[in-house]
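Renewal narrative, Specific Aim 1. Our central claim is that a sequence can be written position by position from structural information alone. The example that follows is taken directly from our test logs and has not been curated for this report. It begins with the structure tokens describing the chain, in the order in which they were read.
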């Protein structure tokens, strides 16, 4: 396991912290502060011990140019900290316990390019580096990995929590281990399916990606979303999975995925042209609930339907409620799953990841560049 900054005396030290404060903005206002809240434990802990805390983050995709609409100033205001309007600008005196936030590191092309010169200039802002941005750690960017070549590098509390949750769920799970994988495309989750299949006791595939599995079995799914280019991948999983694979047995269909649409409960074959599978049906919900009741560990990544539309959110809600009620250790994947959980007000999980792509890559068994650069707990200090 990676070493935490808590093992080091940082009183009075300038600590450069990479957080993921890439929050959604609407008219210059923060629409979802989840990632700000997730950063608070590390920043508060550093402040309490008297470190001089300098925070860096990205926001959106400014493509190496200064874009006022993607400034981190509103984030600094929400956090109640001093804002520095250029990530390479001297911060001035940072008092012990003070937290300052630097402007968007992606205003410079050198961040995404992992430019050594840019990384060196960023590193000059601190004496120690703490990576707390798990959600950005699948990117080999200067602010994530480049600065670690110039400063002692440690894990933040959020980073450790994410890594420990993945370890508990995938490396040393309580059995049975059940994985529920959803979302739109098989291609984006192919690596996850391949990595999970030999490790799980049950692999439930839900969401639009299940349509591709139905089509691979020869089913008629009407106008449902099917990823034709992934049919062979689906056939391969079907052949390898055997009894481990659990697919929906019924569905909720409509002509369009819009609020107020006429809906029907249908099967998963013989769907009429013009109708689309947009959620799992009640029989599938019951099947999943029974399978989850005896689970020791549950990993969930991807909604069960078009959860942003109320008419097709029932399957995702029921799946989340069944996971929370199971008593199992539960790891909820980031991105669309975390957003659905937040929107539907679902609680009671062991860990809800802040990562999107980072969580997916970790669930594929890949080493994340931003994790690889950190000190090991038993390494040299």
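The sequence written for that structure reads:
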């Amino acid at each position: 396991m990676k070493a935490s900054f808590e093992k080091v005396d940082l009183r009075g030290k300038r600590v450069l912290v990479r957080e993921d404060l890439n929050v959604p903005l609407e008219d210059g206002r923060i629409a979802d502060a989840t990632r700000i809240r997730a950063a608070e434990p590390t920043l508060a802990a550093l402040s309490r011990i008297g470190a001089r805390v300098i925070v860096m983050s990205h926001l959106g995709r400014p493509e190496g140019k200064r874009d006022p609409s993607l400034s981190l100033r509103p984030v600094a205001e929400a956090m109640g900290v001093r804002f520095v309007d250029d990530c390479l600008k001297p911060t001035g005196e940072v008092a012990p316990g003070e937290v300052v936030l630097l402007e968007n590191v992606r205003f410079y092309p050198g961040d995404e390019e992992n430019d050594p010169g840019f990384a060196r200039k960023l590193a000059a802002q601190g004496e120690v580096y703490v990576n707390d941005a798990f959600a950005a750690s699948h990117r080999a960017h200067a602010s994530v990995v480049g600065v670690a070549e110039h400063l002692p590098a440690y894990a933040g509390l959020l980073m450790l929590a994410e890594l420990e949750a993945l370890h508990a769920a995938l490396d040393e799970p309580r059995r049975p281990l059940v994985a529920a994988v959803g979302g739109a495309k098989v291609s984006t989750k192919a690596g996850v399916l391949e990595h999970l299949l030999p490790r799980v006791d049950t692999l439930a595939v839900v969401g639009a990606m299940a349509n591709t599995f139905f089509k691979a079995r020869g089913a008629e799914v009407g106008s449902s979303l099917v990823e034709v280019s992934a049919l062979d991948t689906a056939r391969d999983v079907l052949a390898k999975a055997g009894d481990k694979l659990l697919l929906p047995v019924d569905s909720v269909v409509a002509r369009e995925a819009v609020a107020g649409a006429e809906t029907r409960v249908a099967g998963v074959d013989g769907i009429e042209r013009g109708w689309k599978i947009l959620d799992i049906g009640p029989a599938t919900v019951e099947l999943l609930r029974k399978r989850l009741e005896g689970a020791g560990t549950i990993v969930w990544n991807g909604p069960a339907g078009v959860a942003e539309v109320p008419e097709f959110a029932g399957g995702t809600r029921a799946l989340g409620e069944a996971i929370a009620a199971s008593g199992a250790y539960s790891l909820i994947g980031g991105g669309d799953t975390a957003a659905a959980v937040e929107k539907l007000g679902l609680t009671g999980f062991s860990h809800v990841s802040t990562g999107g792509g980072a969580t997916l890559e970790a669930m594929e068994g890949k080493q994340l560049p931003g994790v690889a650069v950190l000190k090991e707990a038993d390494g040299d200090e």
